[in-house]
Amino acid sequence: MVKEASETMTLETVRNSLNEQENTIIYSLIDRANYPLNPKMYDESASLIPGFDGSLVKFMVMETEAVHAKCGRYENPEELPFFPGNLPSSLVPSQEYPNILHLTASSINMNESIWDFYFQKLLPLISAPGEDGNYAKCAASDLNCLQALSRRIHYGKFVAEIKFIETPQDYEPEIRSQNSDSLMKLLTFEDVEETVKRRVEKKAAVYGQRVSLVEAEPGQKPKIDPAVISRLYDEWVMPLTKKVEVEYLLGRLD
Ligand SMILES: C=C(O[C@@H]1C=C(C(=O)O)C=C[C@H]1O)C(=O)O
Known about the structure:
The chain has helices at 11-32, 56-70, 111-126, 135-154, 156-166, 168-176, 180-187, 190-207, 226-250. The protein is an all-alpha fold. The two termini are 13 Å apart. 28% of the residues are buried. It catalyses: chorismate = prephenate.
């Protein structure tokens, strides 16, 4: 039984959560920007881990996800693994999570797309070229970024549930005819998207400031380019969140 999302969440509380999650995303990316690109870590054929068929970062993510799964992380509907195959079961007592989402939610996992844009597009924009060999810390930093982005993007499931509950009469006909384009139009708020883009750019400028007790040198650049963060949201985070919303709605009446 799906519990009415409106009992515990509103569009406002969900948007507040997305706003909070921006902070985690931006701080994680600022942390990653402390390391150079370290391309060897992502090279599938570098054989940095003997006996493991894949890159060091993949090894780090898979092994960490296995520990997190044992501690119950993926019992939480807000958390999705990047490597869901063969994850161990949770060893901890089950936690009661509010049953807000329709069952269709569990079949939606965009982490493959998130993995691809993060490593192929975003990382070269936030880290300087080069190697420092600091692989363990750097890969752990990548995982923090990936998890924060994944949680935000899949939060689209909650956003979609609330939008559906608020105006089912608008959504139901489009769901019955499986019209993805109309659903996309219905759930899009361009003014909200503009605000988000401007806000994350400003946050990146503020959080990435270099704080000094003496007069800061003029022209000091923030640790991360604020325009990149705005672009991250415009080109990847918001389109993928909306894709999650559409996928969820398409299955909402099943
Ligand atoms: C998440 C929402 O749905 C859409 C996606 C947005 C986003 O990813 O930030 C913003 C506005 C909407 O176009 C929302 O309405 O808040």
